[in-house]
Structures are given as C-alpha cells and as structure tokens.
Design a protein that fits this description.
Order of helices and strands: HEEEEHEEHEEEEHEHEH
Structural class: alpha+beta
Radius of gyration: 42 Å
Shape: elongated
Strand content: 15-25%
Low-confidence stretches: 171-194, 237-243, 262-277
Largest sheet: 6 strands, antiparallel
Mean pLDDT: 77
Number of strands: 12
Number of helices: 6
Distance between the termini: 176 Å
Helix content: 10-25%
Length: 277
C-alpha cells in the first residue's frame, strides 16, 4: 500500500470517528436541570389578604433558573404572606403579588393602625428620626377663644415605622456593621439622609384616633421628642443649704433642768436644798 493510500485511509478513519462522536452527542438525552416547586392560587385572593393553606396549591415544578427569574414562591413559603393585588385562581404567586406583611403595611401586627403626620425638620429631632425610635408627640397651638398659646402631650411612646420626605425615603435604613465606617456612614455624609418631614407610626386604634383628633380636628402643630426610658430616674435636686450637725446631749445640764422642774421649792437652796441647814 502506497503512502498516499495509507494517508487517505487514516483521514477517513478520523472523519468517521468524529462523525460518530457528533451523532452520539446529538442523540444523548438532555441532562436533567434542577427544578423548583412553585405555588399557585387555588382560589380568588383579594388584596390585603393573609394567605392560609386552602388558598394555595402546588403547580408543576419549573426550572430553578426560570422560577428565580419570575420571583416564584415555593409552596412552603407563602403561608402568612399578604397579597398586594387581586389574584385569580391558577396564578403564579410571586414576590410582586405576594409579600411579607411588614413589606405591605410596615408592621406585621394586624391589631395596629398605621398613620402619618408631618412636621418641620426642627420639630423632628433635627430630621434625624428613623424607624424603630420611640417618640413623644406634643401638640402646640392657640386657644380658639382666649388666643392663649399652649402645649400639651398628645401621645407618649409612639413607635416610628417609617420616615420620609417628599414621597421618598428620608434616611438610609441600611445598618452599618460594627467596626465598619464605610458604606453606611459614607451615604449619610453624602447627604442621602435627607431631613424627614413625614413620620409614620404604628399604634393602637384608640391612640391613632387621639393623634388624628389633635393634629386634625383641633389643628395643633406637631413637635416630636425622643421618648425617655421608662426606667430612668431623676436624681435628687442639689441644694446649697449647709448641712447642720446633729445636736449633742449635755447630760449635766439635762439633769439640772429636770431637778428644777421636779423640785421647784429646792431650786434656790443649792445642792439638795440643804445648804442652809
């Protein structure tokens, strides 16, 4: 066999091997991609509804990448979440139409009302309020009849859940980690902590009524302070009066006074009243 023939045979073998490998890859079954279970609405869910078990059913698992892209909730994560819109049966439950309660209404305690009021920056602790503060809300104004100015405490120890200005977030809510003076504090220094003019609080309904009545119906202006600790004790007032020493007891003088009062007829006769005898 000539050299040329040998080379042609070798080339044909190589081409055949490559073709076989290519065909093998084409007919190989696709690898199983990781999939994730997803939750679907089992019934009509109205807005502002906390989900319970009978409102949810499991849907066909989706590829994990697709489930993440669509923000799909797994079945075991939707209970106790709150709907943000009307959800029809069979709809995929996602991070858009279903959120944690506190992400919808600031707090997850449904027994609390959420109410906002506005005040000037100088009346809001220099505009440095932030969620989590406990505040005392004062109201000031003038009496409608006498015209006298007055101030009164509207409600003590109110829980601040949001602070904003002009419809935007007033302060950077990211908490810098201990020991790091970088990102969080740098954002504050750059002026992103805009002075807050709108304070949102979560309170019991009767306290919400008193706040609205005072600031609305009575027309009082708001002034806010950070609440003092209930455990704080006011130290006794200092005094400049001199400290008086306790009186000392003169035993001999006391006995003389006693003898005078008991034996008045002998008081002028010396010792025992017997000196002239």
């Amino acid at each position: 066999m000539s050299m040329r023939t040998t080379m042609l045979v070798a080339a044909a073998l190589l081409l055949s091997t490559g073709l076989l490998l290519t065909l093998k890859d084409l007919f190989r079954p696709a690898p199983d991609l990781p999939r994730q279970s997803v939750a679907l609405a089992a019934a009509v869910i109205e807005p502002y509804t906390i989900l319970s078990l009978e409102m949810v059913r499991a849907g066909e698992p989706l590829p994990a990448a697709e489930a993440r892209a669509r923000g799909a909730w797994p079945v075991d994560a939707v209970l106790g979440k709150m709907s943000t819109q009307r959800i029809t049966p069979g709809s995929l439950l996602t991070g858009v139409n279903l959120k944690p309660i506190e992400a919808v209404r600031f707090v997850d305690e449904m027994g609390l009302e959420v109410v906002s009021f506005a005040a000037g920056v100088d009346r809001l602790v220099g505009g440095q309020l932030r969620p989590g503060h406990l505040i005392n809300l004062y109201g000031y104004g003038r009496d409608g009849q006498s015209g006298e100015a007055y101030t009164r405490l509207i409600e003590p120890r109110l829980w601040v859940v949001d602070v904003s200005t002009a419809g935007g977030q007033a302060v950077d809510l990211a908490t810098p980690r201990p020991g790091l003076q970088g990102e969080g504090y740098a954002e504050l220094r750059e002026g992103r902590d805009r002075p807050g003019t709108m304070v949102t609080i979560a309170v019991e309904p009767e306290r919400a009524y008193r706040v609205i009545d005072a600031l609305g119906a009575q027309g009082l202006s708001a002034w806010v302070t950070l609440a003092a600790s209930e455990l704080a004790q006011v130290p006794p007032r200092a005094t400049s009066e001199p400290v008086r020493a306790a009186p000392t007891l003169d035993v001999w003088a006391t006995l003389q006074a006693l003898s005078t009062s008991v034996f008045p007829t002998l008081s002028g006769t010396g010792y025992g009243g017997l000196a002239d005898r």
